Amino acid sequence: MTLVAFDFDETLSQSDPSILLGREYDVATEMRGLLEQGVRDEIDFETSLQERVSLLEGMPERRVETAFERCSLRDGVADMITALRRSDVRVAVLTGSFERAVEAALEQADTTVDHVVANRLVIENSAVTGDVDGPVLDGQKDGPLGELAVADGVDLEQTIAVGNGATDLSMLRAAGTAVGFNPEPVVEQYCDVVVTSIRKLHLYFEQHGIIDTER
């Protein structure tokens, strides 16, 4: 059996849930600034995440849902996920982003995965508290990948990680096969395979027998 773990932001989705939340709550400029600081490695992922979420303190839950409803999967992702699962491949989304955003995108595409490992906005009295919890607060994904492999009875060498950014490095380096999806330069050197589109990723899975085209 094989386990494929995907990053979400900029991999399965072109949407960035933090930016969507920022636009909905009129803090998009500040949100983007924190994201750019993270890209420049001026602040670590956990600090960036906590500061981004603090900008949302008091945001009504209904507006959070409105923002997350704008999250969508890239064209072809739903078909690829369906083909993988039909081929008895376990599929996971492993992201430092928000669980509900991933779920909303999957629901919109009428598809599902075996695991979603993501962080959660803390909501009390129907509003965001400004806090966040979850299993990927520090942006490190190798631990959760290993836990999923054990839970699914999959040897780590039989796992495939797909990602693009620095927060995917730990997962890519831990997996049996590291697939870069339009990876950043710092990430590409650790990738066994690089693809530039969902179509090419789907084709890679077919050519390597991960997707069984007879099913």
UniProtKB/TrEMBL annotation:
Needed co-factor(s): Mg(2+)
Top EC category: hydrolase
UniProt pathway annotation: Amino-acid biosynthesis; L-serine biosynthesis; L-serine from 3-phospho-D-glycerate: step 3/3
Stated name of the protein: phosphoserine phosphatase
EC number(s) reported in the record: 3.1.3.3
Superkingdom, natural source: Archaea
GO biological process per UniProt: L-serine biosynthetic process
GO cellular component, one term: cytoplasm
Sorted UniProt keywords: Amino-acid biosynthesis, Hydrolase, Magnesium, Metal-binding, Serine biosynthesis
GO molecular-function terms, A-Z: L-phosphoserine phosphatase activity; magnesium ion binding
